[in-house]
Design goal:
The chain is of the alpha+beta class. It has 2 domains: about 5-155, Gcn5-related N-acetyltransferase (GNAT) (Aminopeptidase, 3-Layer(aba) Sandwich); about 160-245, Glutaredoxin (3-Layer(aba) Sandwich), CATH 3.40.30.10. About 30% of the residues lie in helices and about 30% in strands. The protein has 7 helices and 14 strands. The strands form 3 sheets. Strands 1, 2, 3, 5, 6, 7, 8 and 9 form an 8-stranded mixed sheet that branches. The protein has a 4-stranded mixed sheet with strand order 12-11-13-14, covered by helices on one side. The chain has a two-stranded antiparallel sheet with strand order 4-10. It is globular, with a radius of gyration of 18 Å.
Length: about 250
């Protein structure tokens, strides 16, 4: 398999794998363009499909973590016909090589004990030598791969360890880091209005806001009556089920 780096010079003509439409792709590309100067790397298979890794220095990451000196993996996604060929290992190996060349302490990534959508598989991470560093009340975990045994252990910020807010009703926090939010958040907003469901959306538009967000996952998080409910992007049907549940 051949791979390619997405850069400022080629991003406008290259696909970015996970987007579902041109509008979503463009929104995600604009987010990527603004992060390249922070050290973000998007490395993908040349063949079109979901086979890529996205990472950046943890200090610049859009997640509420304390991991100075580490490289944080935003997303490692290999699916469909690309699975089962060792491509995940290729992508991870390149990230490790790059991080080491920059003098990083190691890697961090989000996962969970029970496999959840949009999070890395803990079994795969463990097999690759990652270890659990921290865990939130929502069951979302921070894993790390130190390059030296004596390296410091990363952790969640306090706001992410105990994800909750003080507002009643349904509140969605989201950002443009995931292109799927560009499609689904407006649909859920319209659906809520049509069905008389009070809904507030909070758009995370800066690294500072992301790093102080009340959830480990800043792409999308839904709270109900102050409690963390899910980080997985919902369809209208699933959203209605949560809204109606007492």
């Amino acid at each position: 398999m051949d791979y390619i780096y997405i850069t400022k010079e080629n991003i406008d003509r290259e696909h970015i794998c996970c987007a579902m439409s041109n509008n979503q792709s463009n929104r995600k590309k604009e987010w990527l363009k603004a992060r390249f100067e922070d050290g973000l790397v998007f490395y993908r298979a040349v063949e079109r499909g979901k086979c890529f890794i996205e990472y950046m220095p943890a200090e610049k990451a859009w997640h509420p973590i304390e991991a100075d000196g580490y490289m944080h993996i935003n997303c490692l996604w290999v699916s469909g016909s690309f699975k089962g060929h060792g491509y995940s290992n290729d992508l991870l190996d390149e990230c490790i090589r790059d991080a080491k060349s920059q003098g990083k302490k190691g890697l961090t990534i989000l996962s969970s004990a029970k496999k959840k959508g949009f999070l890395a598989d803990a079994k795969y991470l463990s097999y690759q030598g990652f270890r659990k560093a921290d865990e939130s009340d929502a069951g979302i975990e921070l894993w790390y791969f130190p390059f030296q045994k004596e390296e410091s252990v990363p952790q969640f910020r306090e706001c992410a360890k105990h994800p909750q807010i003080k507002e009643d009703g349904i509140v969605i926090y989201y950002s443009d880091q995931c292109p799927f939010t560009y499609y689904w958040v407006p649909r859920l907003t319209e659906f809520a209005q049509e069905n008389g469901i009070p809904l507030k959306t909070v758009y995370i538009d800066s690294r500072e806001a992301a790093q102080s967000a009340p959830s480990p996952v800043t792409n999308f998080t839904l709270f109900k009556d102050g409690k963390f409910i899910t980080h997985e992007i919902l369809s209208e049907k699933k959203f209605l089920t949560i809204a109606e549940k007492q």
